[in-house]
Amino acid sequence: MRRLLLIPFACLLLAAPPVALAGGTAASSGSLVVSNAWVRQIVVQGNGTIFGHVDSGTLTVVSYDPADTQQPKVSGAVGRVVGNTVRYSGTDMRFLFPNGHYLITLEGAGIDISAVGAGTVAAAGLGTDNDGTLAVNGGKALQVGFTSGLAVFGGKKGQGASLTDAPAGKGASK
């Protein structure tokens, strides 16, 4: 009978290290969600995974340093080297940058982005009432404004979850 009681206890001991490690990682991981953005430009710099869809527009990869052997994927457009960047333009474009350090810019209509990790995002909308929304770290979705500022996702627990320097009346908070 004692041996039967030791089996669940041993399972709990074996599970404890991964749970402890996950707790440390979760403190630095955050999220970014951009929905149906119509923008002059979105700039996202971060560490982790980022993927998305562009109805019509341009994705410029300023830099990408993969953390493992997985390579980025872009469909719906052919990449063109412009200086030190790679630029993709097209319609119905999808992209995935798995686990690495990235700096990308997006311009266009119907832009949806999801990212997990830590980083910053800055967006400049077209100035309409429907330039899309942006949410970080599971927070409230805020309207992308004409001159929306900087938002931080991930980092230390409780750190930055709102756009700064956005004009009043566009849904951004200071």
Description:
This protein is mainly β and 174 residues long. It has one domain (29-153). The chain has one helix and seven strands. The chain has one helix at 2-26, and strands at 30-66, 73-75, 79-82, 85-125, 133-136, 142-143, 150-153. Strands 1, 2, 3, 4, 5, 6 and 7 form a seven-stranded antiparallel β-sheet that branches. The longest helix has 25 residues, at 2-26. It is globular, with a radius of gyration of 20 Å. It starts with a helix and ends in a 21-residue tail after the last strand. The relative contact order is 0.23. Residues 1-27, 157-161 and 164-174 have low confidence and may be disordered.
Provide the descriptors you would attach to this structure in a database record.
single chain; about 170 residues; mainly beta; 7-stranded antiparallel β-sheet; disordered C terminus
Quick synopsis:
The chain has 174 residues and is mainly beta. The chain is built from 1 helix and 7 strands, in the order H-E-E-E-E-E-E-E. Strands 1, 2, 3, 4, 5, 6 and 7 form a 7-stranded antiparallel beta sheet that branches.
